[in-house]
């Protein structure tokens, strides 16, 4: 309709339209607006790509989300992190791990990217693999933060390794960091 009237809105208007379409899970319409924007030389904001990827994930179309990012040559941290979360939520660890490797190689993985995968592994009692990913995180020059340690506390509690969980808790306290509420809850269950 906008094209028929020779009216092309600016990036801001398109962004609001895209947010609305994504909120209502209108994936095909959102992709069409994104493609129209890019064809006319408008640069979508980074959060728009993240919103679109989130819709793919909510609709269970993880492979399509990956293809979308690859086809559009989108290597943007927040959009990739949304896909990482979607892969983890769907239990697709290998897909998430492969995406994280690509992100790391392309220098778009941030601390949160690593934490998403580590947290999922720890919540699913796979702390040994979580520590392997933590090792890769450190080698890639991303430093663990309080979210990383919160995940490790949860992982240790899940496998009933409360001594290590408590040691991590003391380490976190020494840095004046704060665990997230879930980590506190898991730790307090151990000593209740």
Automatic annotation (TrEMBL):
Q: Does the keyword Repeat apply?
A: yes
- The PPR repeats lie at 10-44, 76-110
What PROSITE patterns is this protein classified in? PPR
- Among the Pfam families in the record, one is PPR_2
Signal peptide interval: 1-22
Question: Could you tell me the keywords of this UniProt record?
Answer: Repeat, Signal
- UniProt xrefs under InterPro entries: PPR_rpt, TPR-like_helical_dom_sf
Q: Which family does it belong to?
A: Belongs to the PPR family. P subfamily.
**Protein name stated in the entry:** Pentatricopeptide repeat-containing protein
Provide the species name: Prunus yedoensis var. nudiflora
